[in-house]
Design a protein that fits this description.
This protein is of the alpha/beta class. The chain has helices at about 15-20, 65-80, 95-105, 150-160, 190-195, 240-255, 275-285, 305-315, 330-345, 350-365, 410-420, 440; strands at about 1-5, 40-45, 50-55, 85-90, 110-115, 140, 175-180, 215-220, 225-230, 260-265, 290-295, 320-325, 385-390, 395-400, 430-435. The radius of gyration is 26 Å and the shape is elongated.
């Protein structure tokens, strides 16, 4: 069951959503207008699954571009919901903006509940009566800060919603979680909207428009994906305010829970030092990664070969560098193909006989190093056996005669040849070097 949580700016919608879902996923700040796109969060109440859609504050009297985009997002949330919750600020009392929202919701074909928020003590309960004037039935007194009344609200939501459907088929496979990350204003949200074929997230020339990490389901060919649109990641030194700090933190967490990251760059700037830092963040989070030079339609003077060589020189995972234009749609579908391919390769198991043939080829092409120091003079590293021990990310175990003889250079050489042989560019690999006597313990 889907529940649209709507209301005037700064009435505590995101705080209430966080309380109902027992999370801190929705961005909360005392400044109004922090939430902009609609964000879905999941919870459960008495065995009933609920999806709460957090929306930006709606002031229907505002006509500025960003305000009208937020209004459109809230209307879209109501259109796809089974129940709407109009959140009001009980301390502020009934305001014209609340009346405008109530009038809008009365025209919608779905049940509407009124949540009178910020009733933090029993003495504040009479404040809820003010909102009978909205004409939407009995207001439910709640406190997002203290948790008071939230059980009553959840009970009312379950009672107002449609009957639960039985026998729904379980998903056949886990969806690919695809994070779209990058610097501010490189076209991440435009790219996400182009993937979806709809204006699902707000796009603006103003940097920093996206404030949250938004999860969006997508069916592409025969694959289920979850797109994660994120706020722009600035250099840490430039994250100067608390709102930006927390939105940046959510973007980093989005990378940590994703299978694949598309690092979006502005093609007119080329791959910048900050783009490389964002790619490193994704790779450290365990994401399979590709770099996307967006706005390719206006990047006439960019040397693509130079950008690819620079990325491969600076980034250990040697990710692919792709071009696209969210504005024209050029090569956009190819990005989804690449994302699905990367996800599949992180889940692939390479048979042990193939890996040992690979190991023989690697040793024949470049002899392992001899040990340093008087104890190891004349003794050389031997690579005896190789097998894969895990997926997502791929993990391998190489049996050796002595771990102390494994140099960093030779370990990188083995990793790079493994990527080349099995087309694992951009995929994090873990290689464990295990001495013969430690094999049983490692297993």
């Amino acid at each position: 069951m889907k529940v649209a949580v709507v209301g005037y700016p700064n009435v505590g919608k995101s705080s209430l959503v966080n309380r109902l879902t027992e999370s801190r996923e929705a961005v909360v700040h005392e400044r109004p207008g922090v939430t902009r796109d609609r964000k879905e969060l999941h919870t459960e109440w008495n065995g009933r699954a609920l999806t709460l859609i957090d929306t930006g504050g709606v002031d229907l009297s505002e006509r500025e571009h960003l305000a009208t985009e937020i209004q459109a997002q809230a209307r879209a949330a109501v259109a796809e919901a089974d129940v709407a919750v109009l959140v009001v600020d009980a301390r502020a009392g009934l305001r014209p903006g609340d009346l405008d929202m109530a009038e809008l919701l009365r025209g919608q074909p779905l049940p509407v509940l009124v949540a009178a928020n910020k009733i933090d003590t029993a003495r504040d309960l009479p404040l809820a009566a003010d909102f009978y004037g909205l004409g939407l039935g009995e207001p439910i007194a709640v406190s997002a800060a203290q948790g008071l009344g939230t059980g009553d609200l959840l009970d009312a939501l379950v009672a107002a919603g449609p009957a639960e459907e039985d026998g729904l088929p379980a998903p056949e496979e886990e969806p690919v979680r695809l994070a779209v990350i990058g610097r501010p204003n490189v076209g991440k949200s435009s790219l996400v909207n182009r993937f979806l074929g709809a204006d699902r997230v707000i796009v603006s020339p103003l940097a920093g428009t996206t404030r949250d990490a938004i999860d969006l389901p997508l069916r592409f060919e025969d694959h289920d994906l979850v797109l994660i649109d994120t706020a722009g990641l600035r250099r840490q030194a430039k994250v100067g305010e608390s709102v930006e700090y927390y939105t940046s933190l959510r973007s980093r967490r989005a990378a940590e829970r994703a299978d694949v990251a598309l690092v979006v760059c502005d093609a007119t700037d080329g791959i910048t030092a900050q783009d490389l830092r964002v790619a490193e963040l994704a790779m450290r989070s365990g994401c399979a990664t590709a770099l996307v030079l967006n706005k390719w339609d206006i990047a006439a003077d960019v040397d693509l070969d130079h950008e690819r060589a620079r990325a491969h020189q600076k980034l250990r995972l040697r990710p692919r560098v792709l071009t696209a234009s969210a504005k024209t749609g050029r090569h956009v579908e190819r990005l989804l193909v690449e994302a699905v391919t990367l996800a599949e390769r992180t889940r692939t198991r390479i048979p042990t006989p193939q890996l040992n043939r690979f190991l023989s080829d690697v040793v024949a092409a470049r002899q392992p190093p001899a040990g340093a120091g008087p104890r190891h003079t004349g003794h050389r590293l031997k690579l005896i056996f190789m097998t894969q021990t895990a997926v997502r990310p791929p993990r391998f175990s190489v049996q050796v005669n002595s771990r102390v003889r494994v140099t960093r250079d030779y370990a990188y050489y083995l990793e790079n040849r493994l990527r080349e042989r099995y087309r694992m560019e951009g995929i994090p690999l873990v290689i464990d070097f295990v001495e013969r006597g430690e094999v049983s313990a490692a297993r």
